[in-house]
Amino acid sequence: MNAIHGADTATVTRMEDLRQSTRSAHQSVDDMVMEMAPFDNRDNYMRFLTLQYVFHARMKPLYDAEDLNRVIPGLVARSRYKAVCDDLADLECARPEIGSRFEISAQDAERIGWLYVCEGSSLGAAFLLKAAANIGLGDAFGARHLAGHPDGRGKHWREFVEQVNDLELSDDKEIAVRNGAVAAFAYFRNLMGNLPLQ
Fold this sequence. Notes:
Elements: E1 3-5, E2 11-13, H1 14-21, H2 23-35, H3 42-64, H4 66-71, H5 81-90, H6 110-123, H7 125-132, H8 153-165, H9 171-194
Helix pairs in contact: 1-9, 2-9, 3-5, 3-6, 6-8, 6-9
GO molecular function, one term: heme oxygenase (decyclizing) activity
Organism: Thalassospira povalilytica
Protein name: Heme oxygenase
């Protein structure tokens, strides 16, 4: 398992380092999502689902990337893009036309940081899925993308953690991974602030 030595001489794994490095950015995104009150009513949820669609649509090329699938086996199957599309169809909502807007600029090792953020959101979606029941949505209708993996959220996440921790990366690439995770949180905040939502 790849480990990183911090200034306090403690040894942490790559994923622990990412969690610590993005704690405040992660909290700010969580706070902004909750301010949207996505599960108070269907209109609010549709605004949230639009955000999810744009994010997962832009993330899909990372999940499809051949080089990433070689080092993170099974990555392509982790994408939740299709589930988001199915949710839009359930609610009879057309897929938003986003064209070239809100493109993701992530190269090489930065992409691992972006994947960390996207996969982490799946782990934390159990609370959101439970809240979705308040407006008649669930893992079989309207909130499919919030559902856990059939093998369990925890197991699915631990497999990803192990795969990422075991990657052999140079110091420059470690920094790139961290920067990618920070950029991913900033990207989602930007979506919430700038995406036209109906």
